[in-house]
Amino acid sequence: MSERTVVHLVRHGEVYNPQKLLYGRMPGYHLSSRGRSMAAATAKFFEGREVTYLAASPLERAQETAAPISQVTGCEVDTVDGILEAGNTFEGLRTKGWRTQLANPIRWRHMTNPLEPSWGEPYAEILERMLAAVEGARQKALGHEAVLVSHQLPIVMVQRYVQGKPLAHASRRCDLASVTSLVFDGDVVIDWSYETPAAHI
User: Fold this and answer.
1) Which of 35, 46, 111, 167 is the most exposed place for a label (fewest CB within 10 A)?
2) CA–CA separation, 111 vs 113, rounded Å?
3) Percent residues over pLDDT 70 in the chain
4) What pTM was estimated for this model as a whole?
């Protein structure tokens, strides 16, 4: 008989980033005070659930988002490299607003193929490592629930995969501290849902 298991993908809360840089995998970026409130609100989403496995990306913002979930569920936080933020050539640059550094022609060579994308880790590679991490979490929480605290683009890759959509995209539905839940029957995803427990913050 198949086991019903749920794997929740949580995006980290808001990061303190006054310089408005694309921080990507850079160390030293922590949750803001609002981000900590978001993490606490999302942790409450898991109260009373049968969460038996909890993991987070090694980056500070993911670890800090996982901390209150650990308190609510009683699970220790496992660190999993496979749910790390996507690699990006533009890390450390200001990429939004009138001061964007993407206007510099020296950057344009990285923008030749938005379908891959040419400026960072290929979508297919992000999906591959995320699916491996999700399967690992499913096996560890077999018959119960698991939580993986990750980042926007890696989670969006899984969302698009389970919906049968192309990985290349122009818009994303993955708010800060949101929860994307995959429902498995055995090793097959039979349903998925999306919640925003911290939307009021």
Assistant:
1) 111
2) 6
3) 84
4) 0.90
